[in-house]
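Hello,

Following up on my earlier ticket. Below are the two sequence lines again, exactly as submitted.
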Amino acid sequence: MIMGKEKFILLAAMIVILIGAGSSAYVYATQTTTDNITINGQQYTIDQIFYIAEPRTFDSLNFSGIALDDLIIKTGVGCLECHEYTIIGDDGYQKTVTWENMQGGLLTKDGMTVFSDLPKAYRIKNIVKIEVI
Amino acid sequence: MGKMKLFAGIIVLGSLWGFAECIIGPALGDAGLPSGALMTSVFAIGLMMISRMLFKRRGMQLGMGLVAGALRLFNPFGGCVVCSAIAIAAEGLLFELIWYKMSLDFSELKTITMKLSMGIVTAYSCYVGGYVITQILTPMVASAGFYVENLIVFMPQILARGLLAAIVGGITVPAIFVLKDININNVKDRIYYPTAVSVSILCWVVVIANALFLMGA
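Thanks for your patience. The regenerated structure is below:
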């Protein structure tokens, strides 16, 4: 009985290591590296984004950048409240937010989103895409 | 062993775990270290292993998770506090489930390979489980809402980050076995209870004082 349990534990540990190593290889292979940010299907450089959108600062959080809601407006998205917005980082991390959240959000110069009304889990680093859904 | 002694053990070890989550974890994060993986594989797994080894009782680890989670609620920093507290308690529950079929004298873990394997499986499961729970709960608590596709596309990252926790857990569990011969019943009550109470109070006071200090800063 103990022998069976020992084999099971050993097998489980090997599977765990394989899953971890396999996932690491997958993440490394699929990591996106680009200087552009795709917003609603159109590509922009960070300089272009900072040129077209209005600045926003969160003094209490010590962050400044451009207003995410204004960025979406300037990129020509219609019926803003009708959509939700999925923000995707270069590591695949993504979060979906509402228009109301976007109105309290900013994008920093180094490509990180910060929302005044959402927890740190919504601070997505090195964003590569904003999907309008 | 008396229920009071077990209860004191749950409080003191749970408080130490909560202290580590609130004070040491953020410090590791600030130092640029992977604090989540280290917190789970070193502090959470280490303290739960110590409790299982010294007290030889099931259920203690869940109790410790609840105490640590409760202490996390008093440290309102670093994102969704309630989600973190629930994730910590969930790690205690996952540990209980993984170790449920293991004998309390650890007769299955005679070889270093078995200890290492259990460390890998436990640390990985607790880390990935806690991470997934946080990813589900945080959007639900926040105004943005939970989207399952956001979790699915990020799963490879979570599974990959668990690898470090698994490797460190594989070191932590065999290391804790050096305490195997300590018999907690040999510790005199006049030393055990005052020590347990003092350490617990110290942990809670430091965490609450730290929270008040940061809020005032």
